[in-house]
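Long-time lurker. I teach an intro course on protein structure, and each term I like to show students one example going from raw sequence to a predicted 3D structure in token notation. This year I'd like something fresh instead of my usual example. Would anyone be willing to generate the tokens for the chain below so I can use it in lecture? Attribution to the forum is fine with me.
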Amino acid sequence: MKLSIKSIEAVKPSDKRQEFPDQLIKGLRLVVQPSGIKSFQLRYKYAGQSKRLTLGRWDKGLTLATARDKAREALLKLEDGSDPLHEKRQKIEAAIERTKKATIGAAMARYEVEHLDKLRSGKNAKIFLQEFKAEYADLELTNFTKDMFREMLQNIIAEGYEVKSNRVCTHIKGFMNWAEEKGLIEYNHLAKVKKPVKVEPRERFLSDADIKLFWKATEAEMEPWGAMYRTMLLLGQRKTEVAYMRFSEIVEGNHWHLPSARTKNKSRHDVFLPTQVMAMVHRENRIVGDFIFSTTGSGPVKGFTKPLSRLRAKMNELAGYELEQWQPHDLRRTLETNLAKLQTPQNIIDRIVNHRSGVTVVQRTYNQYDYRAEKEAALQKWADHVEELVA
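-- Reply from a regular --
Happy to contribute to a lecture. Here you go:
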């Protein structure tokens, strides 16, 4: 049978595999499977071995003319001493490897090593990205669509985690920005997707009545959680800053020095501890080690969710009704609000909580006065106020 468009279309499958050689190109054959699939194949010898190179399928659009061109190209490579089949396999393996590197899982592994592991907030970012990484690890970056993104965020909201959906949104977009910078994608097609939930700024702070309940409730689990949360209330510093507090950071008795690597704004910070906090720092029943708040002695406290839930539940029990829920960051707002009520100037409050609001770059550069006396007096006045309130 001479191979032509009509003859190829006319050939019917049988119960056995059929081969029809081409009359123009030596080694080129039409292969017809019992299933009816028709494909072109080149037979040749390389280093004394017979080999078969599949060129493509008729039903996938490969024409006779194109099959002949591919066969000629392969025979020319053979003439130059190359094995066409080996080259094809190498190209396939290279394409598979490129695809693997372009997957979300592979890109995320690079992102963690090259970016997140260098950030103080890297561990927190990994938590928000873990579901995205697990679900779409094998998907190519460019194939993660806006619809997939929005559906993922809506599923998080449906589970009751509205704030989490915004965090996940931010971190995935940050990851895609990084992928664009590294040339893994041409552009971040998720950049204009807005956060799914509009979160109102929190205004919650503990009232005097709340502080009394808080102080009483912390007695139920003083070591180390009660002591840690009381310290957060009295100092107004961020949760991780207090939780990872070390004895090696305390200098000159009551001077707690936070290096820039330990603060959110990467600016070194000095906190002068009132006597009530010093008593908790040097409490007798704490677990011995450099970390002031620890459950093991070898590292800082971990797993804040359950202790916080127990503390809230205890406060509700003491109150006899369910209080408006508060977050650890609300303790910081409580300190700022009460320092203002105690007539503390705003610039001193900002320096106590390590805020840069209202301070120009020039002022930060040239004004190196540490305001120790003012900060120490303000925090001691607040601690005395709390002690009197809860007595």
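Some talking points for your students: The chain has a mean pLDDT of 89. The first strand starts at residue 18 and ends at 21.
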